[in-house]
Design brief:
With about 220 residues, the protein is mainly beta. Helix content is about 15%, strand content about 40%.
């Protein structure tokens, strides 16, 4: 718990990355072989909506935007689209204050409240797993292949409560969920060298984060 608190404070202090990129974009920090839009990514860059990010084996990346911080695990393919992410394969660790949405095929994961929420989501061989580490996460499952947000309005919905892990097949339609306790340790970005080094941001980052959010309230694209 002490480790989480320390890293969480560090996140808040450095979430001022909103002062580096436009609110519609995000900063991307990479380690290892990572591509953006099919091209090799530098260690630090700015990315904008509709950008495909792919990490290779033993590579990772951290995506930072106003109110959210996402670690992209190895062998992951994900599309960044501003207020949401589309995970094609691999794993993400999401820390958000703004109800960052993650879509995986016919499944949508969104924090229950627009407040501090930490969850992990993975799509491996067609099996989707969501672990709620801090606060609860809703899962909406479309009955047919979604073409727009409206396809999720009449869908199966369940809640992954803090400390729980639920998994199901990626396929559309009603499905049986498997429930178990979430991993005791927070794997993802809390153990990464980026997370361990961000404390140097200081109070300036905190003030920047508060300022950048003061005129831009949380507004998930799907209620």
């Amino acid at each position: 718990m002490k480790r989480f608190t320390a890293v969480f404070v560090a996140f808040v202090m450095t979430a001022g990355s909103c002062c580096v990129a436009e609110d519609t974009g995000a900063t991307l920090r990479t380690q290892g072989n990572v591509s953006v839009g099919g091209n090799p990514a530098p260690p630090f860059s700015t990315v904008f909506p509709n950008t495909l990010i792919e990490t290779q084996k033993n590579a990772s990346a951290i995506l930072e935007l106003t109110g959210s911080r996402i670690e992209i695990g190895p062998e992951t393919v994900v599309e960044f689209d501003g207020g949401e992410l589309r995970l094609e394969h691999g794993s993400l660790s999401v820390l958000t204050f703004r109800s960052m949405i993650v879509k995986v095929g016919c499944i949508l994961a969104i924090p229950v409240r627009s407040e501090e929420t930490l969850f992990e989501i993975a799509n491996q061989t067609g099996r989707v797993t969501i672990s709620a580490i801090r606060n609860d996460v809703n899962i909406k499952s479309a009955l047919k292949t979604p073409k727009s947000a409206a396809d999720f309005t009449k869908s199966e919905e369940i809640t992954v409560h803090q400390g729980e892990q639920k998994s199901r097949d990626e396929k559309c339609g009603p499905a049986r969920y498997e429930t178990r306790a979430a991993p005791a340790a927070i794997r993802g970005w809390l153990n990464s060298p980026y997370a361990q080094g961000v404390a140097a941001g200081g109070t300036v980052g905190l003030l920047c984060w508060l300022f950048c959010n003061s005129n831009n309230p949380a507004s998930p694209s799907i209620p």
